[in-house]
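Aim 2 progress update. The chain analyzed this quarter is reproduced below.
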Amino acid sequence: MPATNKEIVARGNAAFAENNLEGFLAFCADDVKWTIIGDRTLSGKDAIRLWLAAMDMGAPTFTVEGVIAEGEQVAAHGDMTMKDEDGKDACYSYCDIYRFRGDRIVEMRTFVVKRNSCEKT
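Predicted C-alpha cells:
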C-alpha cells in the first residue's frame, strides 16, 4: 500500500531530525523547490544539500504539534531547537507547507520565527 502524503511528511521529518539529509531528500523530487519565507529559495536537491552542509547546524530537535493534509498539500507546525552561530540553543516556532506531485515532495514553504525563550508558552 502506498504511503499517504501525511506519512511521507512524518518519515521525512524523522529523517531530518536524525540529521539524515539523504533520507529526507529521498522523499523529494529532483526539482524540489524550498522557499524559506523572508530568507531564500533553494531549487533542486543539490542546492538544498549545499546550503544545509554550509550551515553545519547538526540535527535539530523538533516537536510536530500538528499536521493537516488536504489533497496534494500537507502542513506541519511545531517547535524546533538548534544551535546558533555561538553554539547555544536557539528556539523557533515553524510551519512547513509541502506540495506533492505523486508520492514526491515538489515544493516546501517554510515559515519560521525565532522565539525569545525556549520555554513553552
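The helical segments are 5-17, 21-25, 45-55. DSSP finds three helices and six strands in the chain. These observations will guide the mutagenesis experiments scheduled for the next reporting period.
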